[in-house]
Amino acid sequence: MTAERVALITGASSGFGLLTCVTLAGRGWRVLATMRDPARREKLDAAASAAGVAERIEVHALDVTNAEQIAALVDVVAVRSLRVDAVINNAGFALAGFAEDTTDAELRRQFETNFFGATAVTRAFLPLLRRQRSGHIVMISSVSGRMGFPGLGSYAASKFALEAWTETLRMEVESLGIEVVLIEPGAFETDIWGRNAIVSEGTMDAKSPNAERIARWRKRFENPKVRPDAQEVANAIARVLDDPKPKLRYVFGPDAKMGLRMRRWLPWSIYERMVIKGSGIDG
Ligand SMILES: NC(=O)c1ccc[n+]([C@@H]2O[C@H](COP(=O)([O-])OP(=O)(O)OC[C@H]3O[C@@H](n4cnc5c(N)ncnc54)[C@H](OP(=O)(O)O)[C@@H]3O)[C@@H](O)[C@H]2O)c1
């Protein structure tokens, strides 16, 4: 009999994180579903019950910006002598707003979660993975980790940083039996576009020199085409975890694939003009 595989997921209360928990549990994994506010677990519980996998998922409190909570989770795993076969760094949010309007505090907050949170959780569990001589580390990055977009500079910067760190980590742990992967979705339907959408205060201020431009930008994003189902990404994460030798990068979504193709093949001046036009900021 093969040992039960264990996955640890951050940001499991909604979106990709929630769906990945249920998908992995359905494939026989034990899931340590972490969320910053366990009081928000009802949606996960309901989805797990509906899928008949509730007993395979346990919820733990984890704000990825909280070093004490990260250490406490490492202790929980150690005390129970659990193995961890997958660390999935999913927790994140997108700060919208023009570079000119964004404060240091806002930019730092974006990095605290999307970059420092993911890297801290990874470093905390690396000694265990090293001892096991196995395990997958999955970073939920974004197509924004490969291309900038007007109004999303802070988010893109945090994901570019995550990409550079992850690309390097992969090379550093290659000989230790640890696999490191970047998941790069385009736009998918999750709470990141609603409940968790954050716009820099300066950009929201009617006195911002960019007020009209961001209003056009928001209109463009508030009337989107139907976004693809996030389950596609959860299924793909499950497949990546089954692959003993996964690639570094996996791109999902038609917009992400098209954007990266344009960036790669078009002359920069044409590419840039198309992205600006697509953002709507200049009418
Ligand atoms: N959906 C997309 O179009 C898209 C595209 C590319 C990349 N992504 C990436 O996918 C990941 C998941 O986002 P999503 O789209 O699934 O959005 P989501 O539904 O808003 O889920 C984000 C999750 O992260 C959690 N979170 C935020 N800050 C946290 C913190 N400090 N500590 C722990 N958890 C925290 C949220 O918790 P609360 O419930 O407490 O708010 C929520 O569970 C993010 O890294 C995002 O950048 C999303």
Provide a concise account of the structure shown:
The protein has 283 residues and is an alpha/beta fold. It has ten helices and nine strands. It has one domain: NAD(P)-binding Rossmann-like Domain (Rossmann fold), CATH 3.40.50.
Radius of gyration of CA atoms, rounded to a whole number: 19 Å
Count every beta strand, where a strand is a DSSP E run of 2 or more residues: 9
Q: Strands of the largest sheet, in order across it?
A: 3-2-1-4-6-7-9
Going by CATH, the homologous superfamily would be: NAD(P)-binding Rossmann-like Domain
Specify the structural class: alpha/beta
Count of spatially separate domains = 1
Measured distance between first and last alpha carbons: 62 Å
Low-confidence stretches: none
User: Per CATH, what is the topology?
Assistant: Rossmann fold
Estimated share of beta-strand residues: 5-15%
- CATH secondary-structure class: Alpha Beta
User: Considering DSSP H and I runs of 4 or more, what fraction of the residues is helical?
Assistant: 40-55%
* Bound ligands, each once: NADP nicotinamide-adenine-dinucleotide phosphate
One letter per element, helices H and strands E, the order comes to EHEHEHEEHEHEEHHHEHH
Task: Please describe the biggest sheet, giving its number of strands, its sense, and whether it closes into a barrel.
Answer: 7 strands, parallel
Q: What oligomeric state best describes the polypeptide chains here?
A: single chain
What is the number of helices?
10
Instruction: Return the average pLDDT rounded to an integer.
Output: 95
From the 3D coordinates, which CATH architecture would you assign?
3-Layer(aba) Sandwich
Q: What global shape is seen?
A: globular
